[in-house]
Hints:
Elements: H1 3-19, H2 22-38, H3 44-53, H4 55-68, H5 84-109, H6 113-123, H7 134-163, H8 168-189, H9 209-230
Amino acid sequence: MHAVIQIVSFLVLGTAVSVGDGQLLLASTLLVVPLYLVSGWRHWPQAWKMLARLRWLFLSMLIVYLFFTPGQLLWPGLEWSPTVEGLGQGLLRIGSLVLLVLAVNLLIAGSEQAAFLSAIVWCLRPLRIIGLQHERLAVRLTLALDAVSEIRSGDRVRGKATTKQGSKIQAIVQTATRLFGDAETRARSVVPHQIVLPEETHPPLIQWLIPLALAILFIAIKIAGSAGFGTR
Length: 232
């Protein structure tokens, strides 16, 4: 599948998950999870790492929805009981975020950096109408990806030694300071060089049916859900 089609399909799915409900979330899950099965769960370890880093965000979201969403008390005997509606909304939003993370991981893992960058350049071409130079944004993105890759490579070598020097908070502070210093040092010492953007390729017309079919599917599910709710 062309990288542009992958990006557009992700945007369609992300829109459905963000503004949708439980039915759209279920449909999106049935579309994303099989992709991990087809790949033999090859991309799952990286997705798990991304989700693990968001565990405190998930917990915070659940607490906020549980105790600050009005509705029927989950335990009526308790004055500060969470609500049934809060539990449902919290799990729905956390599930939506988890699904987006899984989709992003597939999007990044399924495209080479050059193809992904070329697709971004192609998608940003309409910005020329309002006078923005999308090529500059693509160049900056290339530099950022290169810098992050080099810094993370060096950080993996020193990561274990850092975590043994103190507590987790100290390790986080030391890591952030080191990354900032590495980025600043690299920015001062980098030698100017020519950056050649990948050649833009037009996605095949037939592949545009994929995001179109996704959009039609999500719209149909939303309409059917609204109609079913209205007849009750």
